[in-house]
Every structure is written in structure tokens, then in C-alpha cells.
Specification:
globular; Sodium/glucose cotransporter; mainly alpha; single chain
């Protein structure tokens, strides 16, 4: 199955355009602050966009509508927990990062527990991040295979090669500003998908409401039950989402690096909290697209019996979207994959150099340090490409499983490192009052 030449041209133009945008930042990289933190010059709103683009993967865009297609909107309850988790990070973890003027999340561990524990935490990040990002890269191969009928391996090589090119040259500045562009592209594409779907359904939203109600609470998004067999409930979403976010956004270098790239702690707070609002809007739209796909499929079936539900969105884009718009939407999915890969490359290189090589005295010469940093970016690009070529099982489950393996232990380690003190209660109360006064 192949798409229209115009759609293919749009996807190719996007790939080349975003690479050219990232290459614009290749000059001015002279220090660790420049290459790994963008010189701490990015505005808070750009960092908020970059955080959302980083935590959103192709798995999210493909898998979230599939969840609503096969179920309802109760997955949204997790996002409420994401918001609480962000507030807790602002209160508990963020001040420690800025007091120490750190470059990586794991420098905080060294201050409390020593160099050896820092190395253990950083090693855990490097291994799990590389594997998890490889799973994410595999997801873009799924889309390309549906659209073009070409080799998944070729898709992986192209996406990673272009991403390595601008990340290698432009460092964190290139990552942040290409993230901004890519977020705007995929949010625009998602909004277009929503309205095209709604227009294609006879009867519009009235038909959606009727079919959804007849399918058994398709539009339900709250479930206050305590049934442990229920996959998504308000309580599990609130608690699980909060702890997951504290781990992913408070201890994972790929997000912490963006928080540390802010001009000040106040800008970092704004970026993190604003990203939560964007995520809420984003997930609401993705889930509603899944409901609309379900209603549309009642009139025009898209999946063959037994076919995986995570193919529903790519199939709709190829079969039903007008020429030109399909190319925009496919480009938006590619945008997410490149955003994830670029963020992972820069954070993996940062941790490799700053948590290991720099500790051993290999960074005295700034020019040598910069060469080493770029060399590690290239090395991790090859590693991600290798992992991306591995065949994985169901993509969403595999990605979340691999990424979540170290989160519990790392979160506990960070909390012990920052909050193990008699003044904890007074400290927490003081931070809460300061937060109220600074927003």
C-alpha cells in the first residue's frame, strides 16, 4: 500500500526541513553549558513545549487512540496524576537541582551518596533509556510499513541518521527548537485528524454520542470504583500517575536536562507546570480521536478481524484522509519519533560525558570535551539504530515496561537524597508557600 506522491513529498520535505532547522544551531558550541543545556538561554515556554514533545512518542500517538477505540476515555485519569506529580517535583526535587548548579540529574546523587552511587544511577539510565528509545524507534517503522510497504529497517536508518545529524551539530539548542517545531506539527496534524473524522461521520457529534452510548459508556472518563480488576480508575490514575511522573520527570535525565536548561528555577517551574496543561489537552484530543475512529468504523470498517488495534490510525490516514492532509499527518507522526530520538541522544551523551568521562578528568580542554560530547552523540545514535532494528512485541506495552523498570528504585534514591532530614515537614510547608507567591 503506497500513498499519493504529494503526501510522500510532504513527508520528505518535513524530514529535510527539520534537519535544516536543527543544523542552524551548529555554531557557538564551546562548553558543556552550550552543548548540553543550550547555554541556559531558552524561554520557559519553549522548554514546556520541549518537555511535552519529549514525553510524547509515536507510541502515544498510535497507542492512545487505540485504547479509546477498544475501550473508553478512562485512560485520561492518569493525566490527573501527571499534574499532581509535576507539582510534587516543583516542591521536592527541583530546588535541589538548582542549589547545586548541576548538569545532570545524577550529580545530585553523588552529593548525597557518593560517586559510586552516581555511576550506578547513571548506568541504569543509559541502559534502559537506550532500549526504551529503540522500542520507540520501532514504532515509526510500523507506520512507514503501513504507508509505503517498504522495509522497516530502512525507515529506522533514515530517521535516526537525520536526527543524529542535527543533534550532533547543534546540541541542546537544536533539540529544544526542533522539539518546538515538531510539537506544533503533530498537534496541528492531530487537530486536523479530529475535525476530518468528525466531518466524515454522518450526523456529526450527535451520531458520535448515540453510538458511543450504545457501545457502553464509550465517553466515560471517570471511574471511582475500587475494583482491582479495573484497568483504569480515578484512584489508580491519581496515585500511579503522580508517582510515575515524579520518576520520569524528576529523576530521568532526558526531562531533568530540560529543567536545568532554564534561565532560573522560576522558569523551570513554569515550564514543568505548563507542560502538564498541554499534556492534558493533548491526551484528551488523542482519546477523542480514538472514539471517533470507533464510530467511523461502524460505517466504514478499517480493521480486518483479528488485526491489531494500534494499526487503526495509520490505516485511516492512508485510506481516508484527503491528499495533502495525509502527508501532513504522517509527517506529524515522524516528527514525534525524531523529537524523542534527538532528546534521547543528547541526554545519553550528556550522562556519558558528565557522569563518567568528566569524573575521570577527561574534560580539562574545552575543545577536547566538545569532541568527546559529539563523539558520544554519534555512538548513541548507532546504539539506538541497533535497538530500533530489533523485533519487539506489542509496542506500547514493551515501551512502557522497559522504560519503567528502574523508576521505582531511582525515585526512592532521589527522595532519600533530598528529603532525608529532620526539617522535612517545615521544608515542605515553606516550599508550598514560596510556590504560591512565585506563580
Amino acid at each position: 500500500m503506497r500513498i499519493h506522491p504529494l503526501d510522500l513529498a510532504i513527508v520528505i520535505a518535513y524530514l529535510l526541513g527539520v534537519t535544516a532547522l536543527g543544523m542552524r544551531f551548529r555554531r557557538g558550541q564551546q562548553s558543556a553549558t552550550d552543548y548540553f543545556l543550550g547555554g541556559r538561554t531558552a524561554p520557559w515556554w519553549a522548554l514546556a513545549f520541549s518537555i511535552v514533545a519529549t514525553e510524547t512518542s509515536t507510541l502515544t500517538i498510535i497507542g492512545t487512540p487505540a485504547i479509546a477505540y477498544g475501550g473508553n476515555l478512562t485512560f485520561l485519569q492518569l493525566v490527573f496524576g501527571y499534574l499532581i506529580g509535576r507539582v510534587l517535583i516543583v516542591l521536592l526535587l527541583l530546588p535541589g537541582y538548582f542549589r547545586g548548579e548541576f548538569f545532570t540529574a545524577y550529580a545530585l546523587i553523588e552529593k548525597r551518596f557518593g560517586e559510586r552511587m552516581r555511576a550506578v544511577a547513571a548506568s541504569t539510565f543509559l541502559i534502559t533509556r537506550a532500549i526504551a528509545e529503540g522500542v520507540r524507534v520501532s514504532a515509526i517503522a510500523l507506520v512507514i510499513s503501513v504507508v509505503l510497504g517498504t522495509s522497516e529497517k530502512l525507515a529506522v536508518v533514515i530517521v535516526i541518521a537525520l536526527t543524529v545529524l542535527y543533534t550532533f551539530e547543534g546540541g541542546m539548542k537544536a533539540v529544544i527548537w526542533t522539539d518546538v517545531a515538531q510539537l506544533l506539527v503533530y498537534l496541528t496534524g492531530s487537530a486536523v485528524t479530529f475535525f476530518v473524522l468528525l466531518h466524515r461521520i454522518p450526523g456529526g457529534w450527535t451520531e458520535v454520542s448515540q453510538v458511543a452510548a450504545g457501545a457502553g459508556h464509550k465517553l466515560q472518563f471517570l471511574d471511582f470504583s475500587w475494583d482491582l480488576d479495573t484497568k483504569y480508575t480515578f484512584w489508580s490514575g491519581l496515585i500511579g500517575g503522580a508517582f510515575l511522573t515524579m520518576a520520569t520527570h524528576g529523576t530521568d535525565q532526558i526531562i531533568v536536562q530540560r529543567l536545568l536548561a532554564a534561565k532560573s528555577e522560576r522558569d523551570s517551574r513554569r515550564a514543568l507546570l505548563a507542560s502538564g496543561v498541554i499534556v492534558l489537552v493533548q491526551f484528551t484530543m488523542f482519546l477523542l480521536i480514538g472514539v471517533l475512529l470507533y464510530v467511523f468504523a461502524q460505517h466504514s470498517p478499517l480493521l480486518a478481524p483479528g488485526e491489531r488495534t494500534d494499526r487503526i490510525l495509520p490505516l485511516f490516514l492512508v485510506r481516508e484522509m484527503p491528499v495533502g492532509l495525509a502527508g501532513l499527518l504522517l509527517a506529524s507522526i515522524v516528527a514525534v519519533a525524531m523529537s524523542n530520538a534527538s532528546g534521547s541522544l543528547n541526554s545519553l551523551a550528556a550522562s556519558s560525558v558528565l557522569d563518567f568521562a568528566k569524573l575521570r578528568g577527561h574534560s580539562a580542554d574545552p575543545a577536547r570535551f566538545l569532541r568527546l560530547s559529539r563523539g558520544m552523540t554519534l555512538f548513541w545514535g548507532l546504539v539506538l539504530m541497533g535497538f530500533g532494528l530489533v523485533k519487539w512485541g506489542p509496542l506500547l506495552e514493551a515501551g512502557l515496561t522497559v522504560a519503567s523498570l528502574p523508576f521505582g528504585s531511582l525515585l526512592g534514591l532521589f527522595l532519600l537524597g533530598t528529603l532525608d532530614r529532620p526539617q522535612f515537614c517545615a521544608y515542605f510547608d515553606l516550599r508550598a508557600w514560596r510556590l504560591r507567591g512565585s506563580l
